[in-house]
């Protein structure tokens, strides 16, 4: 299976990725973004795609199977926030390596936690930043996505998986329960019976099973996963960023509310699109039989 390095090299040869990021950073105004970015220890970031409009975040603690220690989640939060604030970025991809997306919370870091300590420090509060991202967040999952790793994938908007991906919520086997959305998001994706089975047994399930359950949108050969996920983000990037954001808000509302109030929410956002220049441009371009030129206004 290809590593992110070899996938990156193969994409460079297809000019999907930028071989000299620093130069393009200068050319496209990313210099400020990158020079301001901290020296990450647990993740790698890049800007990819033929239009250099896709933010890529790779979890990078391979020896610990990308276990989600607090500094790693803080770095992911910072990178997501920066990409979210960057007008040139249309979507953000979260990925790991071929063995693991993430094997869960860092059990060694958590081992001596206490109830009062969790309460006092607000354990897991740093996940909120990722949840609040307004731009499409796409998980590209190869290998293990377990516990917090499965939960991290589930808080993304779309999950693409490699054929070797293994999902699971095995917290029960170490005397705890999912704590970053596993008991809440999983039933919304796969229904109660499946979610209960997964959470109460701790059993792992395959990418193909995850696709069948509706947790994963598509499954790809391992070495094609990142390339296909970049294509997905690029396709989304052809649309108005403003309208994409509204569509994301509307779909997410379906998980938060009753059908009646969700439909009301949808209607008000739908009407709201008629206050935007991009809605006008989109429909005018259709009528004039030309491609739209969206301005994010
Ligand atoms: N935490 C810390 N270290 C880990 C973790 C983890 N979750 N998973 C793997 N590692 C480490 C191992 O300790 C090992 O390190 P070392 O070489 O120093 O001993 C290294 O990664 C490689 O792991 P293995 O040797 O075990 O690799 P295998 O290929 O034999 O097995 C498995 C891979 C099956 C994935 C196995 O490592 C495993 O079962 N890992 C634990 C999976 C798990 O239980 N995850 C759930 C954790 S609890 C959780 O996520 C709670 C969520 C709460 C919210 C989220 C908070 C961030």
UniProtKB/TrEMBL annotation:
One of its GO terms (cellular component) is mitochondrion. One of its GO terms (biological process) is fatty acid beta-oxidation. Keywords: Fatty acid metabolism, Lipid metabolism, Lyase. Transmembrane segments: none annotated. It comes from Eumeta variegata. One of its GO terms (molecular function) is enoyl-CoA hydratase activity. Coiled coil: none annotated. The lineage of its organism: Eukaryota, Metazoa, Ecdysozoa, Arthropoda, Hexapoda. Its EC number is 4.2.1.17. It comes from the Eukaryota. PROSITE patterns: ENOYL_COA_HYDRATASE. This is Probable enoyl-CoA hydratase, mitochondrial. Belongs to the enoyl-CoA hydratase/isomerase family.
């Amino acid at each position: 299976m290809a590593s992110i390095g070899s996938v990156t090299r193969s994409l460079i040869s297809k000019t999907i990725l930028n071989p000299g990021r620093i130069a393009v950073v200068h050319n496209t105004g990313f210099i400020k973004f990158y020079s301001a970015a901290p020296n990450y220890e647990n993740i790698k970031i890049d800007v990819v795609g033929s239009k250099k409009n896709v933010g890529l975040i790779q979890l990078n603690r391979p020896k610990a199977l990308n276990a989600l220690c607090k500094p790693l989640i803080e770095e992911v939060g910072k990178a997501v926030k920066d990409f979210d604030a960057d007008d040139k970025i249309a979507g953000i991809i979260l990925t790991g390596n071929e063995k693991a997306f993430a094997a869960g919370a860092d059990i060694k870091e958590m081992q001596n936690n206490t109830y009062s300590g969790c309460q006092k420090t607000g354990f897991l509060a740093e996940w909120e930043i990722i949840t609040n991202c307004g731009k499409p967040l796409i998980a590209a999952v190869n290998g293990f996505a377990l516990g917090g790793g499965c939960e991290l994938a589930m808080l993304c908007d779309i999950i693409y998986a490699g054929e070797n991906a293994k999902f699971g919520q095995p917290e029960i086997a170490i005397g705890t329960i999912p704590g970053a959305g596993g008991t809440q998001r999983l039933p919304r994706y796969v229904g109660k019976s499946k979610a209960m089975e997964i959470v109460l047994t701790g059993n792992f399930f395959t990418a193909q099973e995850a696709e069948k359950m509706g947790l994963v949108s598509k499954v790809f050969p391992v070495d094609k996963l990142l390339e296909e996920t970049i294509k997905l983000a690029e396709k989304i990037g052809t649309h108005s960023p403003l309208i994409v954001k509204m569509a994301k808000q509307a779909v997410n509302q379906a998980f938060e509310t009753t059908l009646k109030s969700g439909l009301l929410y949808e209607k008000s956002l739908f009407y709201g699109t008629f206050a935007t220049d991009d809605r006008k441009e989109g429909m005018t371009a259709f009528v004039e039989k030309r491609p739209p030129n969206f301005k994010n206004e």
